[in-house]
């Protein structure tokens, strides 16, 4: 049973043959041990596929945990900050979960597949914490990350692509709804979810049907200008629509080594996901205390003057440094220059005027810009079609 | 006769670094070494023609980078090359591999348990929190908690500050680390036997305790707090063997005008009128200096080279009771080629790192049971490396050098001295252990040097062959190392100092005790300090 060196080489997703064939510029990155593309042909063109036609992103490496058993709902209500009983069968909910100190471990989506059957999708691995919290609950937790292939199909023509593929009445699926289709004898689950803030769906299927699904989708989507997209285009889209990225905009409390580096849901602008009416959930006491005593930090979206993205910038109020930028981008559809920042309290109320210290390089010359910026109340991209049911054709 | 400013007894890494910093400050320094070669337990020796053995210490991580840089050790011939890999072979034919890359490591652990693979992230973060607490104190003298001196109070306040910054959970973890057994500690994270066994090795190496003995969790931490080029917890090979460390330290020391005399076995530290005045050698020679620094372990220092009548009675008593128990032996082997190991490809990157053959905590504890019973382990825990896969200077091309650290081996066999027969039995238990997982290993052996605690003590001078100059248990750490009241390198007699691993921050090829002692000596002499500050962790 000699194991060869190749055994521990990078993994390939179930779509890899199709992904590799379309990766014209050979730009790859590692994601949870998988070989995944950062771009296929051009980041900006891929981004515009999401915003004007349809972009397809292979999200198979995403961590997926199946939670089943009589206590599944009670268990998730214990783990999650939001009220899980409000997610009915066939619906999906976004949530965060905290440790006992009320610090965010991760965010993710919870798919209610059946009465006592949930799937949790998360960016960070969670098997240790989920298993730990399961003590005393009659639940079974299965890491099915490798067992489910997934594609995000996102953009104004995404519904049309799926309809053309034969997914009847998909336009009736509401945002955060999920439904099932038969795909060549296998279950194809489709949810109206995504990480782009646009009209979009996520497709979930057994790995052995992945390539067939990809082929059928791309054939059907051709008239609707379907294109594959890599992680760079997705990142641009998520910043434009105000979505946080674990490991970028916050550090999981489990991984934080230095004191004070983790964040509470309130400090990440995710207080709306915390249901203080629930009798008990992980971190509730600490979060109650925080509500009373005040938070240390505030997550803000900044509208930055000028067209230079405020990557890694320090944020100043007058001469005082009050925070740093975690994500920044020039947003091509909203035509605005956006930055996510962590500010020390009490800074960062909507309308606050601050300054971002931006460094940029052109032909080896570095320039420093002190760009005025303003705290805005919501993301700069939030189209009507994202919420419309039935979903529009384009 | 010439009088030196300072005499250092023992040309190991701490003696040489101590001498180097004293000489750098302009002192006239003499380092005495009883062997005909320098290095103490940091040596490279050619015991089989064309083969170089690191025949005591064998890998490098704890050596303080501040000292390496400040004493210009690279210019004097030191290169530390990091290595990855590592494997624990299992009795069922499988193995657990250790990978540098986080994702590969995760994947390998997930073969055994997805939960363990994920828990490893929590474990790493928790261990890092603790190493960050200790690391700032490596290149400092330990603060005395009973002292009212401003210097001690400042250090204590800082220590207390970093403590409280950890929060309640972190504080609890600190106490666990300093008091728990490595077995109990690992069980808070992992469920898989082989993963626990692989990680637990660092908790018992050099220690006469078992994986379930309280205090071994700290020993694990001790092995994690070093770094290679800022990668905390990473280990490397000194190119040319560990003698490259002592060799470069010696050259640096000599570049400041320091002198070394070998074959100089010290009989007595000379004390007159309550002050040290020099040393007398076994051959009758005497060397004189107002300052005498002992790089010997506390027992050898206070019970051997010092006269009890020159010492306070409590120091003699404390030295007698100091825990320095022999627990390990060593085999150094010249190989005719690279051995094949069951389950991994020949030349696999896993084989470049530390190889182990004990796949459960149970087996590790049973190996300790044999030590308690007064004999070597029948199923020994081995930390085995073949550094010649990375370093071309150790063996002829195509040939290899293997270093095998063996635990447990008691200082005495059933209360009696080691006999030739015992030594042969010990050697056989090790060779058989390796042979069980490598079909061609035994046929490749060209030469084997077997060192029981008896040989290590006789050649290197470490009492009972204890590699750390005293156990790294909490009762013998910080302001208690070696004894309370004497932890800041000053001995009980005016002009007498200690600079060995028996002082803070303890054993391993670290050079920190030597440098820290030099700082205190220079302070007492009102000389400008030459010892660098530690780098701050970011």
Write up this protein.
The complex is a heterodimer of chains A (394) and B (538). In chain A, the strands form four sheets. Chain A has a six-stranded mixed beta sheet. Chain A has a six-stranded antiparallel β-barrel with strand order 14-17-16-15-18-19. Chain A has a five-stranded antiparallel beta sheet with strand order 5-6-7-4-8, with helices on one face. Helices cover 18% and strands 34% of the residues of chain A. In chain A, strand 5 (92-98) and strand 6 form a beta hairpin. By secondary structure, chain A is of the alpha+beta class. Chain B is 34% helix and 17% strand. Chain B has helices at residues 13-24, 65-70, 102-112, 114-134, 150-165, 167-179, 182-187, 193-204, 216-224, 243-255, 298-305, 313-321, 361-372, 420-435, 453-460, 512-524; strands at 3-9, 29-32, 45-48, 51-53, 80-82, 87-89, 95-97, 227-228, 231-232, 236-238, 259-261, 266-272, 275-281, 286-294, 328-335, 355-356, 381-385, 400-407, 445-451, 496-498. In chain B, strands 1, 2, 11, 12, 13, 14 and 20 form a seven-stranded mixed beta sheet that branches. A four-stranded antiparallel beta sheet of chain B has the order 17-18-15-19. In chain B, helix 1 runs parallel beside helix 16, helix 3 (102-112) packs across helix 4 (114-134) and helix 11 (298-305) crosses helix 12. The longest helix of chain B is centred in the first third of the chain and has 21 residues, at 114-134. The mean pLDDT of chain B is 95. Classes of the chains: A alpha+beta (394), B alpha/beta (538).
Give me the secondary-structure topology.
The complex is a heterodimer of chains A (394) and B (538).
Chain A: H1 16-22, E1 27-31, E2 34-39, H2 43-52, E3 54-58, E4 63-68, H3 72-79, E5 92-98, E6 104-114, E7 117-122, H4 127-133, E8 140-143, E9 149-154, H5 158-164, E10 178-183, E11 186-191, E12 200-205, H6 210-221, E13 226-228, H7 231-240, H8 284-293, E14 297-304, E15 314-317, E16 320-331, E17 336-344, E18 353-362, E19 365-376
Parallel strand pairs in A: 3-13
Antiparallel strand pairs in A: 1-2, 3-9, 4-7, 4-8, 5-6, 6-7, 9-12, 10-11, 11-12, 14-17, 14-19, 15-16, 15-18, 16-17, 18-19
Chain B: E1 3-9, H1 13-24, E2 29-32, E3 45-48, E4 51-53, H2 65-70, E5 80-82, E6 87-89, E7 95-97, H3 102-112, H4 114-134, H5 150-165, H6 167-179, H7 182-187, H8 193-204, H9 216-224, E8 227-228, E9 231-232, E10 236-238, H10 243-255, E11 259-261, E12 266-272, E13 275-281, E14 286-294, H11 298-305, H12 313-321, E15 328-335, E16 355-356, H13 361-372, E17 381-385, E18 400-407, H14 420-435, E19 445-451, H15 453-460, E20 496-498, H16 512-524
Parallel strand pairs in B: 1-2, 1-14, 2-11, 6-16, 14-20
Antiparallel strand pairs in B: 3-4, 5-10, 6-7, 8-9, 12-13, 13-14, 15-18, 15-19, 17-18
Helix pairs in contact in B: 1-10, 1-16, 3-4, 6-9, 8-9, 11-12
């Amino acid at each position: 049973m000699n194991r060869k060196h190749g055994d521990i080489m990078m993994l390939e997703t179930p779509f890899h043959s199709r992904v590799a064939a379309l990766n014209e510029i050979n730009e790859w990155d590692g994601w949870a041990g998988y070989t995944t593309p950062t771009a296929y042909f051009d980041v900006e063109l891929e981004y515009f596929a999401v915003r004007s036609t349809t972009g397809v992103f292979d999200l198979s490496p995403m961590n997926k945990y199946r939670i089943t058993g009589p206590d599944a709902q009670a268990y998730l209500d214990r783990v999650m900050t939001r009220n899980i009983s409000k997610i009915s069968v066939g619906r999906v909910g976004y949530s965060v979960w905290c440790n006992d100190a009320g610090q965010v471990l991760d965010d993710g989506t919870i798919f209610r597949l059946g009465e006592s059957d949930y799937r949790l999708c998360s960016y960070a691995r969670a098997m240790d914490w989920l298993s730990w919290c399961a003590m005393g609950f009659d639940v079974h937790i299965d890491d099915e990350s490798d067992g489910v292939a997934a594609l995000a199909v996102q953009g104004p023509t995404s519904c049309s692509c799926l309809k053309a593929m034969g997914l009847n009445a998909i336009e009736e699926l509401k945002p955060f709804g999920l439904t099932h289709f038969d795909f060549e004898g296998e279950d194809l689950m489709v949810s109206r979810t995504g990480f782009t803030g646009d009209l979009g769906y996520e497709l979930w299927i057994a790995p052995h049907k992945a390539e067939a699904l990809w082929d059928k989708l791309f054939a059907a989507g051709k008239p609707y200008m379907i294109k594959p997209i890599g992680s760079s285009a997705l990142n641009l889209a998520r910043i434009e629509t105000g979505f946080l990225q674990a490991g970028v905009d916050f550090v999981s409390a489990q991984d934080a080594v230095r004191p004070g580096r983790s964040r509470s849901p309130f400090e990440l602008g995710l207080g709306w996901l915390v249901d203080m009416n629930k009798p008990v959930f992980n971190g509730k006491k600490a979060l109650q205390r925080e509500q009373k005593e005040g938070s240390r930090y505030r997550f803000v979206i900044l509208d930055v003057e000028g067209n230079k993205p405020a990557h890694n910038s320090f944020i100043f109020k007058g001469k005082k440094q009050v925070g740093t930028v975690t994500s920044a981008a020039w947003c091509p559809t909203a035509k605005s220059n956006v930055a996510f920042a962590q500010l020390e309290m009490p800074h960062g109320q909507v309308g606050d005027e601050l300054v971002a210290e931006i460094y940029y390089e052109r032909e080896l010359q570095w320039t420093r810009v002190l760009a005025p910026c303003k705290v805005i109340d919501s993301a700069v991209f939030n189209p009507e079609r994202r919420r419309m049911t039935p979903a529009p054709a384009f | 006769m010439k009088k030196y400013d300072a005499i250092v007894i023992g040309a190991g890494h701490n003696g040489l670094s101590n001498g180097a910093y004293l000489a750098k400050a302009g002192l006239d320094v003499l380092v005495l070494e009883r062997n005909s070669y320098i290095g103490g337990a940091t040596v490279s020796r050619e015991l089989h023609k064309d083969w170089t053995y690191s025949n005591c210490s064998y890998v490098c991580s704890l050596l303080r980078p501040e000292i390496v840089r400040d004493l210009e050790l690279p210019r004097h011939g030191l290169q530390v090359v990091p290595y990855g890999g590592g494997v624990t072979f299992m009795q069922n034919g499988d193995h657990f591999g250790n990978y540098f890359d986080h994702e590969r490591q995760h994947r390998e652990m997930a073969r055994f348990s997805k939960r363990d693979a994920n828990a490893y992230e929590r474990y790493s973060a928790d261990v890092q929190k603790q190493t960050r607490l200790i690391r700032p104190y490596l290149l400092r003298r330990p603060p005395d908690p009973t002292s009212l001196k401003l210097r001690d109070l400042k250090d204590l306040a800082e220590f207390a500050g970093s403590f409280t910054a950890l929060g309640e959970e972190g504080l609890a973890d600190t106490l666990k680390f300093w008091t728990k057994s490595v077995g109990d500690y690992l069980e808070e994270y992992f469920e898989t036997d082989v993963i626990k066994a692989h990680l637990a090795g660092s908790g018992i190496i050099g220690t006469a305790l078992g994986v379930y003995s309280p205090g071994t969790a700290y020993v694990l931490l001790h092995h994690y707090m070093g770094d290679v080029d800022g990668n905390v917890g990473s280990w490397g090979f000194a190119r040319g063997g560990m003698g490259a460390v002592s060799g470069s330290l010696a050259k640096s020391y000599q570049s400041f005008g320091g002198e070394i005399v070998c074959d100089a076995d010290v009989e007595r530290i000379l004390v007159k009128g309550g002050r040290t005045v020099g040393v007398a050698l076994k051959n009758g020679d005497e060397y004189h200096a107002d300052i005498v620094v002992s790089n010997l372990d506390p027992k050898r220092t206070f019970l051997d080279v010092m006269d009890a009548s020159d010492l306070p009675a409590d120091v003699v008593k404390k030295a007698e009771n100091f825990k320095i128990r022999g627990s390990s032996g060593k085999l150094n082997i010249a190989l005719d080629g690279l051995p094949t190991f069951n389950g991994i490809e020949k030349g696999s990157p896993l084989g470049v790192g530390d190889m182990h053959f004990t796949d459960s905590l149970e087996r590790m504890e049973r190996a300790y049971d044999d030590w308690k019973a007064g004999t070597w382990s029948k199923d020994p825990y081995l930390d085995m490396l073949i550094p010649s896969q990375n370093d071309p200077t150790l063996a002829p091309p195509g040939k290899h050098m293997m270093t095998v650290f063996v635990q447990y081996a008691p200082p005495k066999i059933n209360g009696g001295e080691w006999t030739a027969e015992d030594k042969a039995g010990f050697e056989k238990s090790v060779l058989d252990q390796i042979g069980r997982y490598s079909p061609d290993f035994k046929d490749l052996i060209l030469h084997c040097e077997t060192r029981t605690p008896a040989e290590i003590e006789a050649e290197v001078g470490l009492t009972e062959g204890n590699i750390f100059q005293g156990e790294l248990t909490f009762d013998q750490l910080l302001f208690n190392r070696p004894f309370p009241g004497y932890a800041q390198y000053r001995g009980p007699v005016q002009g007498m100092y200690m600079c060995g691993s028996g002082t803070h921050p303890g054993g391993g090829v670290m050079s920190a005790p030597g440098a820290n002692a030099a700082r205190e000596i220079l302070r007492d002499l009102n000389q400008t300090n030459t010892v660098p500050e530690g780098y701050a962790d970011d």
